[in-house]
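Exercise 7.
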Amino acid sequence: MLSSNIKEARENARLTQSQLALKMGLSVKTIVDYEKGKRDITVGNVMKIADICDISFYELTDTKPIISQKLGKAFKKIAQKTMQQPQPIPTEELSYINDYDVELSAGTGSYSADHPLAVGRRAFSTKWIKDKGLKAQNLSLVRVHGDSMEPLLKDKDIVMIDESKTNPSDKYPFACLWEHELYVKLLQLSEPGKISLVSVNKQYDSQQVVLSWQNFNIIGAVVWHAHSWL
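Solution. The predicted structure, written as tokens, is:
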């Protein structure tokens, strides 16, 4: 049950009910009621508890969607064919992030997952990566195509995807693979078993996905972006 899962997650995170309530901005009584199953809980608060307790949303809710853990599952087998040339070696000062010639649609869909890739690598400060709590091996660079995420993300922006972050959250936009097409959207769990792909640009309607579908994968969270003026 969700109530017992919340209690177990809190205890595993070594948090008291008071500490969790403080982090959530809720009363202690609300947390107690959640753990006893005496109060309904919003999807947003479930997501917050999962984030605070460092547990998968799906483990917390006992759901099992098909979630990709690495962008490489969709791309790297193809990319290996183009990576025969010598690659730069990381140093103490610089880490190199794979740069994929792939676009994430901020509209109605972009390249398919089997699109041929031209892969390069871009240097980032190792200290900056560590200071942000990131790991270079989890990061990939891709591009945004379309205007549905404006003004948050603009057409031709370069975005950094953290492939270790696959739990739906309202903290970040997410890169997703749906119906063999690539998207960057905000994610909202509208009801059990369903997720909405939400655009920032209000001219675009949300798209709803059933999580049990085999053709939907969360690739990772957008944790950084660079805007192009061209």
